[in-house]
Amino acid sequence: MAYPTVSAPYGFRPINSIGGTPYSGSTRLVPIDSGAMYTGDLVELLSSGKCAVIASGTSAAQTLGVCVGVQYTNSSGQTVQAQYAPASGVTNAVAYVVDDPRALFQVAVVSSGTTIAPLGRTAVGQNTSVILNAGNANTGDSAQAIDDTTATTNTLPIRIVDVVPATATGSDAYVEMVVKINTHTYNNTTGV
């Protein structure tokens, strides 16, 4: 059976730990500051103690982790658990965040926007930026991805750890990578 075609970015999906331990589903509930948040979005911790979707995919933003779901109170006063939190019309919004600095994530590679593009195995060990596409309100999924340009720049937020072999589109061409957060909030010695 062939691996499904990766036709569009889907955000960051937790898969395991840098040491190989399987992802156990552990998360931290973090209040959402403002704006829409989708499952698979990278989030940053603000000085208010709340989180927001990272504002810049290429800067040294101190990333807290990845949103894997949300909870909020809707306009009818009902508590809703969902794939995404709308930007308005909700209160008490919190994100379920995978905030382990050792967590690894699977993510699609794009050349720009949502155009899927391959990277070779030489990208492993390199850093890259995040492409901040808007999420999908119909599915609740993020559309964030990583850029197909890599560098050794230490302020880039993502480190490529491995390729996803099943996504090979040719000899040494992979459209999904295994990554870790390079500029994690918990590893920032100066705080937020």
Topology:
Elements: E1 13-17, E2 28-31, E3 37-38, E4 42-45, E5 51-53, E6 63-73, E7 79-82, E8 84-85, E9 91-98, E10 103-112, E11 115-116, E12 127-131, E13 145-151, E14 158-163, E15 168-170, E16 173-174, E17 176-181
Parallel strand pairs: 10-13
Antiparallel strand pairs: 1-10, 2-9, 3-8, 4-5, 4-6, 6-7, 6-9, 10-11, 10-17, 12-13, 12-14, 14-17, 15-16
Written description of the protein model:
- It is a single chain.
- The protein is mainly β.
- The chain has one domain.
- Helix content is 0%, strand content 44%.
- It has no helices and 17 strands.
- The strands form 4 sheets. Strands 2, 4, 5, 6, 7 and 9 form a 6-stranded antiparallel sheet that branches. It has a 5-stranded mixed β-barrel with strand order 10-13-12-14-17. Strands 3-8 form a two-stranded antiparallel sheet.
- The chain is globular, with a radius of gyration of 16 Å.
Principal-axes geometry comes out as globular
The gyration radius over C-alpha positions equals: 16 Å
Give the N-terminus to C-terminus distance in angstroms. Answer: 46 Å
Q: What percentage of the residues does DSSP assign to strands (E)?
A: 35-45%
The computed structural class is mainly beta
For the secondary structure, the number of strands is 17
- Name the helicity range: under 10%
Sketch the major β-sheet.
Answer: 6 strands, antiparallel
Number of alpha- plus pi-helical segments: 0
Give the low-confidence spans. none
Question: Domains counted in the coordinates: how many?
Answer: 1
